[in-house]
Design goal:
The protein is mainly beta. The protein has one helix at 2-12; strands at 19-23, 35-38, 50-53, 62-73, 79-85, 92-98, 103-112, 118-124, 131-140. The chain has one domain (17-140): Jelly Rolls (Sandwich). The two termini are 14 Å apart.
């Protein structure tokens, strides 16, 4: 309820304190490098979930509004990336991203509350353990 009231107040007085960033961040151990995720070596089978940011890394409520997909390894004909939240073994898929380009913007931002672990996994049509680097585009201060 408090979050909703703050948004209404900010909209009414046209005051915003939005900050745009990425996961992982420069405060993460990987120094803001994109995270490499791998497909399984079976066509259209997702590889294992790979952590993008630990729960302790999400220090404020965040919206994820897109992602970058970089450094494809393998002859990717078709593929998908799933982004999820939740602990190891309890991941809940938030969005499935088709491989259509280097930057993908979601039609609607995905809300991630403070203290949430975020991970991703990958699958392709090739039947090879292809890899791709993922970085999430975020907004805070809403």
């Amino acid at each position: 309820m408090t979050q909703w009231l703050r948004r209404v107040f900010n909209a009414l007085i046209e005051s915003v304190d939005l900050r745009y960033g990425t996961f992982p961040t420069s405060a993460d151990a990987v120094a803001a490098a994109a995270i490499t995720i791998a497909a399984a070596a079976v066509a259209w089978t997702f590889g294992a979930w790979t952590q993008i940011v630990a729960a302790v890394g999400v220090t404020v409520d965040t919206q994820i509004w897109g992602c970058t997909l970089e450094n494809f390894v393998g002859a990717v004909a078709q593929g998908e990336v799933e982004i999820a939240r939740g602990g190891v073994g309890a991941e809940v898929m938030l969005v499935k991203v088709p491989i259509v380009g280097a930057v993908y913007t979601f039609p609607k931002p995905v809300f991630v509350p403070v203290g949430t672990r975020i991970s991703a996994r990958y699958r392709t049509s090739t039947g090879v353990a292809d890899t791709v680097d993922v970085k999430l585009l975020t907004t805070t201060g809403f």
